[in-house]
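lol ok so funny story. i was supposed to be doing the assay writeup but got distracted and ended up predicting the structure for this chain instead. priorities right. anyway since i did it might as well share w the group, maybe its usefull for someone
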Amino acid sequence: MRIALDAMGGEHSPAAEVEGAVAAAKAHAIEVVLVGKKEAVEAELKKHRYDLPVVEASQVIEMTDHPSEVMRDKRDSSIAVGMKLLKNKGVDAFVSAGNTGAVMTAATLILGRIEGIERPALSILVAFPSNSVLLLDVGANANCKPDYLVQFAQMGSVYMAKIFGIENPRVGLLSNGEEDTKGNSLVCEAHKMLRATKLNFVGNIEGHDLPSNSTDVLVTDGFTGNVLIKVGEGVGEIIVQSVKQAIASRPYLKAVALILKPALRSAFNSVDYSEYGGAPLLGVNGNVIIAHGRSNAKAIKSALFIAKRAVEQDIVSAIRKGIN
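and the output, tada:
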């Protein structure tokens, strides 16, 4: 399996990307094709004494660049070159921690949307002690129409049914109240449309109900979803730091912490964004994973593993068959 990685995309590129790529290649038996400025990428590879193929891309899309620049002014960017490799079947998947809007634009223009899908959506599986919820959109579409949310629900339902074997997945709509009339105009209209579908729509879901095992798929617009995910990351980091500080300030707790180390590690991992790696971009004709902009090597390795799973489980075909 060959997976292309945007070596110039994240805040810590290319060092984090190369380190994560080497770790993933060793751990998951995949060939990672690094896309970016060859001289810089190969310099990082030498530090790890490991060979991976490098494809030259002379330009870099910055986080501050407008997404349209990926195809207009920077056609030789690492994002555009990597996406073309995927389009031409030179690789099986593409991973980038770069500009989310640019990755989505490149995927839409180069790979094309699955027939029947108006807007692709970023999805992420959020794990809780008693259940997991597929949340989408988490950043691809800041402004949405009600029918976009319906399509997100359809893709999410197919994903959970085909990939995770959940029969008739429950679909919820994120809102500020469980009553049918709660929410802004987007939520209220989407609610009516979802009621009219054949999906197993369970109604509005409030934020505090996420861990209650009340839904398998949770739909929202990309702006709200992205804020929700980042707030969760922040809260997770606060919890981890608070526990570590409490242990460090009380010597007698260090012995207890050693005994509880496996449990603490498991709990910390559940709120560590680097464990999840990246989010699949659902709705395009190719396996595209978008990682966090501040991804470290561990997060890049995790994102490459997510890409491997996407290929193995043929997510694109599953959505294509489920939608059409």
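The mean pLDDT is 87. The CA atoms of residues 123 and 136 lie 4 Å apart.
back to the writeup now i swear
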